[in-house]
Amino acid sequence: MDDAAAVERDDVARRIAGRLLGIAIVVGAVVLGVVVWRELYRYPRTDDAYVRANTIGIAPHVSGPIVELNVVDNQRVTLGEVLFVVDPRPYRSVVDKAKADLELTNLDIRGYEHAVEAAQAALEQREAEAAYAKQYLDRVTPLLGRKFVTPNDVFEARTRATAAEAKVQEARYELSRAENELGQLGDVNARRQAAEAALYDAELNLSYCTVRAPFDGYVTNLNIAVGQYANQGKEVFALVDDRQWYVMANFREDFLASIRPGMEADVYLMSYPRRRFRGRVQGIGWALYQKDGATVGVLPAVEPTLNWVRLAQRFPVRILLEESDPERPFRMGSSAVVTVRGEDDERASAATDRPAS
């Protein structure tokens, strides 16, 4: 009898303990879920992120065969370092010709200056002759009434005065033409300026034969050799900008309310899983390409969707990496895991920066 009661009490105790344990598990799961949910939105995290850097295509400004190639694929280069050289001989000859043209232009300008001086002297001579002819006409005209000269003498004097004025006008035109041919506009001579501009352009093209690195970076996709013909404006290889690295992290749109520019971020790279890198949010993307709504011909194309399934869009968030490690260099395209440090870290940072009262 006592044994049966003891067994019954044990069963009751086990059932109560099992129920309490079940309740504790459910409550713990709920609490854990709430905490995880709160922390997830408090510190947004994503593993859909990749290391990025700006890249440019290296293309020569002039065309010609490559006579020097001073880099190899994946080499690091510094600002101003010579990458390759295009055959400069044709461009050097253009420079020599432009220099000769400038010297000839200077000689031409001297000749035009002398022509202007000669035209000025001719104008002064014609003006003197015109003045004399007018003065003579003024003297003989009163003598006609006193019969000291004939009407023919007066007519001839008037004709000479008119012809002299016409020659003065012609001399002025000649002076204007000579000044125009000289090309002097204030303190600037247009002929000399054009020749100097041609020389500058030739020297600029000659300098373009030597292609230098525009910034510190890494050579990539180099598939050329000496002798390759480089075309003007056509890229021959790419250069990865090593001055600023960043991570493009794609966050779900329901996380964006917890992310703002300036927030700190922890970045872990798959290539260096035990090394934490610091970053800072630069900005959040404003637009995504959406296939739904694009036009086909003149009609909008709208894809059918399931109304009860709503997938959150992912917007790119650019995070600038604020530190680098020479022993762990960044590589464009590396996979990353990003956690944005949210409101608390932002307030703590503001409190640290606030001066004491």
CATH topology of the largest domain: Elongation Factor Tu (Ef-tu), domain 3
Q: Give helix and strand order, one letter per element, not per position.
A: HEEEEHHEEHEEEEEEEEEEH
- The Cα radius of gyration reads 45 Å
**Number of contiguous helices:** 5
β-strand amount: 25-35%
| CATH level 1 class label of the largest domain | Mainly Beta
- The helix fraction, in percent, is 40-55%
Structural class: alpha+beta
Shape: elongated
- Uncertain segments are 350-357
Q: Describe the biggest sheet?
A: 6 strands, antiparallel, barrel
The average pLDDT is: 84
Q: How many individual domains? A: 3
In order across it, which strands form the biggest sheet? 1-10-15-12-11-16
User: Which architecture of the largest domain does the CATH hierarchy give at level 2?
Assistant: Beta Barrel
What is the name of the CATH superfamily of the largest domain? Efflux pump adaptor protein, beta barrel domain
Describe the structure.
With 357 residues, this protein is an alpha+beta fold. Helix content is 44%, strand content 26%. A six-stranded antiparallel β-barrel has the order 1-10-15-12-11-16. Helix 2 (89-143) packs antiparallel against helix 3 (151-182) and helix 2 (89-143) runs antiparallel to helix 4. It starts with a helix and ends with a helix. The model is unreliable at 350-357 (pLDDT under 50).
